[in-house]
Amino acid sequence: MDFLRPTTWEEALAAKADQPESVPIQGGTDVMVEINFDVRRPPALLDLNQVAELREWSMTGGLCRVGAGVPYAVVVDELGGPLPGLAQASRTVGSPQIRNRGTVGGNLGAASPAGDSHPPLLAAGAAVEVESRERGVRMIPAAEFYRGVKRSALEPDELIRAVHVPPATGPQYFSKVGTRNAMVIAVCSFAIALHPGERRVGTGLGSAAPTPRRALEAEELLAAELDWEAPLTPALARRFGELCARAAAPIDDVRGTAAYRVHAIGVLARRTLAWAWNDHLEKRAA
Ligand SMILES: Cc1cc2nc3c(=O)[nH]c(=O)nc-3n(C[C@H](O)[C@H](O)[C@H](O)COP(=O)(O)OP(=O)(O)OC[C@H]3O[C@@H](n4cnc5c(N)ncnc54)[C@H](O)[C@@H]3O)c2cc1C
């Protein structure tokens, strides 16, 4: 197995263009597990750890640009203010060791329906910056990035450079059901982001369909019926939960049944909406 070690982004793009079958490796918390268990044996590994810029984040053009190599620990420590949903989700990933190595870019690269960063990226309206040597940069909205179970819109000669996330303008929450409290892959998960300026609520479902996805009907319901000055009515919260549950298309597997996942998504949706709404009203009253 070849081991490619570019030190600049241009070298990394060139290596991927010349050897599209090479497998990028950042934290390695997915890739090394697959290699150790012989799930795959790529002809080459493309180690991105020497490309320092991938580990940086910045505020650029009103968006928070998070480099593909920024580990969860940094998201938790430094991005809780602008990206509270992503920071909450990052806090639930694996263990401290996994959060030190594992990255949002790697989560996107793996494109698992159970990846914890996807629901908050969907709810916030993020876009993934990908690039190839031949065709340059593409910005892919998160909602178009996930294409199937562990499949994404990334082409074989492309690499993920960063994810661009609008900073929060209202409360955001992420909630995850697991079989225990830590070191657990989601049975299902849900993220919500209030966008008060646009009178809009964003959603993201995890581990509840072949891909992470938004609950569009539920978002439309709130856009039409939510009174942004008033308490949330139980009937609207219930209807929102039902429509989020209806957006789920899960399977039975070792972690949970489809029926349980549908039920749990409804509960998580209702609950996170109530938390976010309380924060919203408290902020208005202050
Ligand atoms: C013990 C354990 C617990 C875990 N718990 C969780 C959990 O709670 N929640 C969760 O979501 N995940 C969990 N994971 C999975 C994993 O940690 C995450 O998916 C993590 O985000 C992967 O990041 P990484 O940097 O380690 O990726 P890597 O393993 O380096 O790469 C993952 C995938 O992304 C591709 N890739 C990496 N960087 C790029 C790039 N720049 N461009 C294109 N492709 C790229 C790789 O080729 C590979 O396909 C766990 C893993 C382990 C081993």
Automatic annotation (TrEMBL):
Q: Provide the residue span(s) of the region labelled Disordered.
A: 91-117
Keyword Repeat in record: no
Q: Which residues form the FAD-binding PCMH-type domain?
A: 1-170
Q: Is the keyword Transmembrane assigned to this protein?
A: no
What's a Pfam family in this record?
FAD_binding_5
Q: Where is the composition biased (Polar residues)?
A: 91-100
Sorted keywords for this record are: FAD, Flavoprotein, Oxidoreductase
- Gene3D superfamilies for the chain: 3.30.465.10, CO dehydrogenase flavoprotein, C-terminal domain, Uridine Diphospho-n-acetylenolpyruvylglucosamine Reductase, domain 2
Question: Which PROSITE patterns does the record associate with it?
Answer: FAD_PCMH
Q: What Gene Ontology molecular-function terms does this entry list?
A: FAD binding; oxidoreductase activity
UniProt-recorded name of the protein? CO/xanthine dehydrogenase FAD-binding subunit
